[in-house]
Amino acid sequence: MALNKYMHPRNIYKTPPDFGKLSLIYPEFAAISKSDITGKVGIDFKDPHSLRVLTKCLLKSDFNLEVDIPADRLVPTLPLRLNYILWIEDLMEVTHRKENIVGLDIGTGACAIYPLLGAVKNKWKFVGTESDAESFTNAEENVQRNNLQELIKLTKNSTKFIISHLFTNDDKEQFDFCMCNPPFYSNLQELCESRSPARLPPKNGFTGSPQELITEGGELEFCRQLIRESKQYRDRIVIFTTMVGHKYNLSVLLQDLKSEGIRHTHAEFCQGRVTRWGLAWTYQQYDLYELVPPRGKPRKKHKPTIFLLPELPSCEGSFEVALSKIKGMLDILCIQHKILDKRGGNITLDIVASNNTWSNQRRKRRLQNRTETDAKVPKLHIEQDSTIPNPINNQVGGESKLEVSEPSKSLNIDDNITNGSEIRESKQDTSSVDSANKTEPLVHAFLKLVKKLDNILLELEFLDGCAGKEGLHQIAQYIKNNWK
After folding, report:
1. Which structural domains are found in the chain, ordered by start?
2. Is the model's pTM score more than 0.70?
3. Is 107 annotated as a binding residue?
4. 370 annotated among ligand-binding-site residues
5. Which stretches are tagged as biased composition: Polar residues (predicted)?
């Protein structure tokens, strides 16, 4: 659990649970656990049933909660959910709210996990909303099973709004905070292609239903709609929060809030191999960034690289032409790209390069030209005539035999040396890239096109990748060299 040390300081799961103890207390857990030759007890984390049993036993052991988790619904991972709750505690502390705290859980799910944890841990009151009928029914049963009806109230959301359906002119209900774990994906294809093959495989098995994982427009559009609705109800909820599953979406949302002057902060939730992010904003007087600054691993800030794109003949200052040309170059280089934001004179793309396809362009062109030249040179075909005396005599059984070298084996010495070195270098490059791709991509960055007056600026911001900022600079140089 490589990221456990970066969990919230108060998270009880910084120290992994004692599976041996759980197997002695809960027969259901003993049935899915197994011991290795050293006697250490473990479970199959890739088995959804095992994950379901583990979560149920931990909820009972650590929070005295009896929870039913349907087989076809998402299994909530407790370290992550607890990280979110503890961060909300920090936000409540800086707003000096300690008693009678009321929270709103958007999309509470079949487990109603956040209201249950908040109620038993902090005695918070909750309103939980849910749009799926089966999940709503199961959540109600979980609340009743734990006798928490006085603290938790669930409501069905049959509208397309996220929070607007809760408020009427006569209703004066106020919330100290809202929290949400929105669906990450916009469609099934995006869900299937969401994990880069360069990343390590997930430790846990896959759980969740389509309605829990997919929403129109994906996570980014959902969060943007929540921000839009929050402006209308800025006086009804003190602090708005949401979880964010993709780092590039967090960056875009932070830009949205900053551009509109909305006070905000964010957090990093680390657990196991998984990282998620929390985003909070308010329209009150609290400076959240100063009061609850982003916590987590110290990260080096990367200043973006900006340069002016040369004018293109007959289409000066054409934004669409520039975007089309950039996308064409990225396709040629086999660099994955996805438009994150497109508004006015700004377009932001998320780019991921898994292989070095931009280096040694001159050498590649020389090889291509040499191949084309060789193809144009006519080959000399010699037909052997037995009547012609053989200048090279090999006496085998008294017969003379003509030895003719095969054209494919005839190489120019200089070419052989050059090609051999290039082939060796190419193999070395490929092997190093392949080994790097097993852990992370070469370059992951934001590419932005910004139009200012009649000029178009290209801005590149490095995020991560084993090739470092130098790899991004090489991509930028390729774009400059091939722009016209």
Report:
1. 4-8+83-191+205-291 (3.40.50.150), 305-356+437-482 (3.30.310)
2. no
3. yes
4. no
5. 385-397, 407-421
